[in-house]
Every structure is written in C-alpha cells, then in structure tokens.
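Title: Prediction job returns without error message
Component: structure pipeline
Severity: low
Priority: P3
Assignee: unassigned

Description:
Job completed but the reporter wants confirmation the result is attached to the right record. Sequence as submitted:
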Amino acid sequence: MTIARPTFILALALALAPAAAYCDAIEPVARVNGQVITQFELDQRILFLRALNIPGDLDENAMERLVNERLQADAARRAGINVSDSDVLTGMEEFAARSDMSSEQFVEAIGRAGVARESFADFVRAGLAWRRLVSGLFSARTQVSDAEIDRAVALGSLGSGARVLVSEIFLPAETPEQQAAARRLAQEISGRGTASGFADAARRYSAAASARRGGRQDWVPVDSLPPAYRNQILSLSPGEITDPIPLPNAIAVFLLHGVEESGRPREVPLSVDYASYLIPGGQNEAAQERAREVAARVDTCDDLYGVAAGQPEDRLRRETVPVAELRSDIASALETLDENEVSASLLTEDGEALIFLMLCSRTIAATEDVDRGAIRQRLFNQRLASYAESYLAELRAQAVIEFK
C-alpha cells in the first residue's frame, strides 16, 4: 500500500513537531562566560514578570535579570556558597507570603500564567545565593553606629518646612563598563571626606549642570528630594558624603552641608556630642591666631585628633553629655552652633587657655516612639544594596556576554 505524499508529509510533520518544539526551547539566546541562557528560560522569565505585573519592556527586563543571575550564581559558586533544597522551599514560602499566599497557592497562580514551578525555584535559589555572598563580603563594612541612628531619628522628625543644602555629583553609567568605572570613582569620592575634594571631583567628573559650581545646589526642601536618595542624605551629618547611590543610567554621590527647619519650633536636644580643644594663652593674640588656624584645618570633629596629635592628652576632650549637665557658658555657646561649626569665645575657669569648641552632633528628643532596630536595618540594607550593585557592575564589566 502506498501512502499519498501529502498525507505522508503531514504525518511526518506531526511526528517531528514535539522534537522541533524541544529544539526551539533549548536554543541558546545568550551566553554569559560560556554559560548558556536558553529560549525556554527567557520565555519563562517573561511570563513570570508578567504574572508579577512588572512594568516596562519585559523582554529586555527578563534578559537583563537572567544575565545578572548567571553572573551572581557563578560568583557564589566560586565562593563556595551552597543553597539547599530546604532553603529554596523556605525562600519560596517567604516570596509567596509577600502576596499573602502560601507557596503552593503562589505556584498554582503563576502556573495558570504558564510559569513552571522549577522556574520559580531557580529564581529563588539564585537570589538566596547572591544575598549570602554579598552579606559575607560586605556586612563588616556596612555596620551602622548608634550615632548614625541618632542622626536618622533626629532628621526623620523634621517637619515639612525642613530643607537641606547639598552638593551633588552624577556620574554617567549607561553601560556595564561605565557602571563599573563610575562606581569605582564614586567610592573614591566618598572616601575623600572633605568639601574641597568633593567640589574638585564635581568640577572634573559630574554630568550635572551644577558641576561648574563644584556640585553646589541651593537649599532644597526635604519633601522635594527624590525617594531614591532622600533617606541616604538625611542619614548624614553635615560634612559627610553618601555612599554611591545607583540611579537609572547614573551613579550619584551627595555631600550634606546643612539642615535647616522652618515653620515650627526647633526641637530641644537631649544631648550633644562636642569637642573642646584647649589653646594656651587665654585671650592673647597668639591664641586667637591659633584658633583661626585650627578652624581653617578642620571640617569635622574627627579632624581635631590630627590637630592635637603629639600634645598633652588633656588638650583635646570629646564627649557626649546630656544638655542639662553642660556648663552654662558651654551650653550657651553650643546652642548657637550647627553641626561641625566652631566657637572660640570661651576661656577655661582659670583663664589660662582659650576653649576651641566644635559641635559634633545633637541627639533630638523624638516626638514619638521610634524603632531603632528598624532604622538600623534600613540603613544597613541601603549600604549593603549599594555594595551589591557595585560588585555586580564589576562582574558585568569583566564578563564575556554574547547575545544571539
């Protein structure tokens, strides 16, 4: 019996269809350091993002995430990071809980959108490995001090009339190579720690219009600061610089010059952190000249340690004291100062030395109960995320990434 040719071709096509579909699914769409990303993985990630209602170009977003996960997984593997199946199950439960579902309910929901359970599990496994790696590499650098929490509490209580004076640097970061270079430069700028060094860097490198002014801006209302970097700026003391802040197509760094509040009475501080440096000579001209020299050398209280190096220990004293326990004349002098400002109008009780005062910080009474642990965790997470973004940018810059 002879099979008619059209019927034979149709039968052959039906027989080969599953194999052809399988070949399409495993077709490489990208390679990351030799590791393949398949069409199936890309399709699954697009469906997953759609199920999560992620906005934007899902094809581009899905590919970007898969490339990053290959780099993250490879770095975690080289560091000996292992994520067990039980860890993945716990992670799936935690992720599903964000949507008020159990893991099984979530898997069923995304399954109706075409997402396989294994794809969800792979996504969770990659995230767990990366978080463990980043935590192990950078946690020691991201510890948050009690003084930083005090500042965040105080600044967080500012009213809607508050405003800040900052300088800014925006470094272009549109490609992985630019991102890595911008982060290295931003880390260097953050470590310089002086207003003059920051201004020089702004003039040389910043892409913002403020570059010609050394990055200096006018006073800006706190409420108008973009959420992407508002908290980082408000966690600073005047004179301090933020860690690098990743933004779309840029890396930003800010220097806080001052905070000013209008529209409501200023809160009464609970305590003050201040330094007093004794200059022999009392009110004579030599002592006054020395005070002017010191004022020109210091930007923060920490700088006074260098000024007093090699001198008797009692020349420099730094302490945190409740306002109610301050000597009245010192309390009056400090009340007129902003953080990192100085005064040289007081003498020691015997009149033999000029007191060079510098206000380091104030601790303000909170108007309501504050969860210091939550603030610490927020600041910690912000810093850790910054280090993680920087590390990932370096991995991408060093990687061989090929797209089909």
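Comment from assignee: result matches the submitted record. Residues 372-398 form the longest helix (27 residues).
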